[in-house]
Amino acid sequence: MEATVTTANSEEKTWGGGNEPMGASYGKMMMWFFIVSDALTFSGFLAAYGFSRFKFIETWPLPDEVFTHFPFMHGVAAPMYYVAFMTFILIFSSVTMVLAVDAGHQLKKNKVVVYMFLTIIGGLIFVGSQAWEWKNFINGEYGAIETKGGSILQFVGKDGKQVALADFAATLHEERTQLSRSHGSWFMEESTQPTYSVAEVQAGFKAHPDLLIRTEVIKDKKKTILSRAESELRLGQAALVVEGANLERNEYGSKLFADFFFFITGFHGFHVFSGVIINIIIFFNVLLGTYEKRKSYEMVEKVGLYWHFVDLVWVFVFTVFYLV
Amino acid sequence: MSHEYVSNTARIWKVFGILSVVTIIEVFLGIYKPDALHLSYFLGLSLLNWIFYALTIFKAYFIVWAFMHMEGEESSLRWAVVLPVIFLVLYLLFILLTEGHYIYGVFKDSTIKWNF
Fold first, then answer.
1. Do B81 and A33 make contact, defined as CB atoms within 8 angstroms?
2. Cβ A168 vs Cβ A207: under 8 Å
3. Running DSSP on this structure, what letter comes out for residue A197?
4. pLDDT 10s digits, A31-49
5. CB contact, 8 Å: B51 with chain A?
6. Would you list the domain boundaries of chain B?
7. Which residues of chain B have a CB within 8 Å of the CB of A308?
8. For the segment A232-243, what is each residue's pLDDT rounded down to a tens digit?
């Protein structure tokens, strides 16, 4: 018990041992310094994102054109609303966590149980929402063309709104069988074929004279739309059809964009997931009365610190990925 | 606990209110992006983005001070945790963003091109 809660009230000098330097118990102070190191890790990732974005500042994808999904509202462009919802879930689970800590200080076991349970539920909803967000990001919505030089071309109608490949691509009946291990010799396989071939997209573009191409280049905070003649010229250099996102390429623009999205939100999501697991362990300890016997709910306070830190990181990820 | 703990649920709910209002403002600005803020710049960053960063720091302050109860800790712990992070983050951002901007200039003005 002494290992987790310092009860000795020594009269020695602060650093003399048996005391609490900086007025915090050993576990709490170490949790704080773990948070410092973890905060620096996340700062490193976010600063690297900033570095790459500054490097490709003229061609970086615009977030409110990427994250536009909301559950049960298919086809409706609803930027921000879903992440705003996720943010609220996380802030609210922080509130229940701090209420659990508060109840712990007053040794009210039942209140701690209820608030910790709500915190865990909030965490699970957040992780689930992030999975849904990833699903939309990976599947993509419109599809795009990658040129030989590696830049992404998207298609827009006369109104400047993006048009999906499925709405105009021609059907040329030239599909070939996917090369898989069972078909190839010596374990040969390839990544999934896109729904349409480059030729089908080019033929479809020719058949729809009011389609235009939008490039990655940003001018006055908007992506540049080419004239019809320029569009046809650029489409001639098409190399690949890109649908959705993976670590190699994505239909939204800069290849690094998807890499950073997966890595940073994934790393944060993993923190939320471990937070939920740790909360569940502490939740059962509370139920079993471990802290009741110890007459101290400091353990709840320590996991609370970690949980608030996860919320804190999300505040920054939210700004950097969705707002700016 | 070595120091007396004062229960303060009223403050927790007040902070929740502040964080919610700030988030709503952020989302509102993020959706409507008023041109006056979005298209005017200060130090290479649009005013809107400055506002977003300021509101983020504002939120971070409340999470750390109220939810993580930093306001109740000894000032030695408080600054041992907060100052190194602030200093190192600013230093890292300064170096990396300057470098990123320089590379942008190289791609733009010299013969090395990323996009064809």
1. yes
2. yes
3. -
4. 999 999 999 999 999 999 9
5. no
6. 1-72, 74-116
7. 63-64, 67-68
8. 999 999 999 999
> Distance between CA B99 and CA A53 in Å, rounded?
11
Question: Which ipTM score applies to this complex?
Answer: 0.91
Q: Which residue of A has its CA nearest to B55?
A: A319
Domain ranges for chain A? 23-140+257-323, 144-243
Query: What are the residues facing A156 on neighbouring strands?
Result: A162, A212
How far apart CA A276 and CA A227 sit, in angstroms, is 52
The closest of A298, A261, A286, A292 to A120, measured between CA atoms, is: A286
**Burial of A270 by CB count in 10 Å (0-12 exposed, 13-18 middle, 19+ buried)?**
exposed
Q: Kindly state whether B75 is in contact with chain A, defined as any CB-CB distance less than 8 angstroms.
A: no
* CATH code reported for the domain at A23-140+257-323: 1.20.120.80
pLDDT of residue B2: 44
Does the CB of B25 have a partner CB in chain A at under 8 Å? Answer: no
Please tell me which residue of chain B has the smallest CA distance to A151: B115
Q: Is B57 on the interface with A (CB under 8 A)?
A: no
User: Residue B101 and residue A54: Cβ atoms within 8 Å?
Assistant: yes
Instruction: Tell me how far apart the alpha carbons of residues A86 and A115 are, in angstroms, rounded to a whole number.
Output: 19
Identity of residue A314: W
On the question of pLDDT at A181 being above 90, the answer is: no
